[in-house]
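Onboarding guide, step 5: your first structure request.
Type a short instruction followed by the sequence, for example:

Predict the 3D structure of this protein.
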Amino acid sequence: MSLIASRARKFGREGIAGIAASDGAGAIPAGGAQNATRQPADVNREFYDALWSASFVVPPQRFNTWPLLSTLAASAPARLEIGPGLHPRLPITGTSFVDISRPALSRLNAHGGLAVLGEITALPFPDCSFDLLCAFDIVEHIEDDRQAFRELGRVAKDDATVIFSVPLHPACWSAFDTLVGHVRRYDPVDLLTILREHSLMLEQSAVFGMQPRSRRLLDFAVWGLTHRRAQAMRWYNGFILPLGLFLQRRLAWAPGLIDVENVDELLLVCRHGGRHQFTVTAEGDRNGAQGSPRHGQED
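The system replies with structure tokens like these:
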């Protein structure tokens, strides 16, 4: 569930290469109330079932997350990716996947994945199961995002790596956020509070995706997916997705929290502290006060 994911701005974000269905944290922004008459889970499932039914599996090597994730995966025998749809970022073979979309699950399993139906708020795994967990464009779709983070912490081993992405700045809410089932965009200060509450030590972060500069392009995408969904899906799979994959930039990692003032979406690499709480502050993150990241950075 990835690049049409943040997807309010993300229809071009990762080269419009991924769409995610997840939960979020915080109040519903102005405009988000348009989904009030329907449950977010129903909105997400309907949107992504339609998307993945008309899509194909894009191998993780095609995404700019591969240099980091392939390295981490090599030393993480127990891996979990939540809500990948047909755009998995971890190696498919031997990785556990959880998704709300049955069309996505069947195709991931056909490619050697261990995919099961489920949601991030109730993961179907025992405690302390995984060394590496990923949730791209997921938590912003969740009503009770605190529960989502509790579940991530529950199934993560102590010292596990937890990687996730979120759209930022509630003031940037758009019709696309509503269309794809977002519940919120994150305020950076609130996001740091969530990390602290769930024993997640922020090691490094990067700008994620490629938001379109043209508001007209975004509005056109919303119109197409609303009124001409079949044609829009063909355009997405046949033109927009390949172009986005071709144009995506290498991730520029920095220790702690990057300057997020003009960042539409953020990718975070965290270490799960288990029973040990870590203090996370905006100033400390920005200066890398928690110490150097365990994993090598990419330019």
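Each response can be followed by summary notes, for example: The longest strand covers residues 156-167.
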